[in-house]
Inverse folding.
């Protein structure tokens, strides 16, 4: 019996160390693993084709609301900033095209500027920005933004745009020939 009492403090000490190590190893993170983060990123990307559907159906106010909701969801997402910025850039791009179609050039310009800042490779946003500059008569900017678009995507075609997973992001019917004419 005496021998058993002597081992009890040792067991308690080992349990305390194991518990302490477990608590310290948690790191104070969100508790969301990489698999769950990836799943949420994909769900966020799945919103973009629905957003573009609103635009393509001509419901521009709803399109702006849908793209804005995607922006809000992206802001709340934990994950890789590059993925968030790509989604936010595409959402801003959609907002820009919506405003440009509504002929609100100042709002479109702002949205395209944000989109190209978030993702310099978003050729569609560069084309939109070039279109705004053309409507504003800023021809030097038209040339520069057109060059930026074609550098990002030499075979640009707005109608057949898809993301890396094949999600449809197409709209209007512009291609690199239109961009070269600007």
């Amino acid at each position: 019996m005496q021998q058993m009492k002597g081992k009890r403090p040792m067991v308690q000490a080992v349990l305390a160390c194991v518990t302490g190590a477990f608590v310290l190893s948690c790191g104070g993170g969100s508790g969301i693993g990489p698999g769950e983060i990836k799943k949420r990123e994909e769900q966020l990307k799945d919103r973009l084709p629905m957003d573009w559907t609103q635009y393509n159906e001509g419901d521009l106010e709803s399109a702006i609301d849908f793209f804005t909701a995607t922006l809000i969801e992206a802001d709340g997402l934990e994950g890789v900033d590059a993925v968030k910025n790509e989604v936010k850039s595409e959402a801003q791009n959609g907002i820009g095209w919506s405003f440009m179609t509504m002929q609100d050039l100042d709002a479109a310009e702002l949205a395209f500027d944000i989109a190209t800042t978030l993702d310099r490779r978003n050729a569609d946003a560069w084309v939109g920005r070039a279109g705004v500059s053309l409507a504003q008569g800023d021809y030097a900017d038209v040339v520069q933004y057109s060059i930026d678009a074609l550098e990002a995507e030499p075979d640009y075609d707005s109608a057949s745009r898809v993301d890396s997973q094949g999600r449809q992001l197409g709209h209007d019917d512009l291609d690199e020939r239109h961009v070269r004419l600007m």
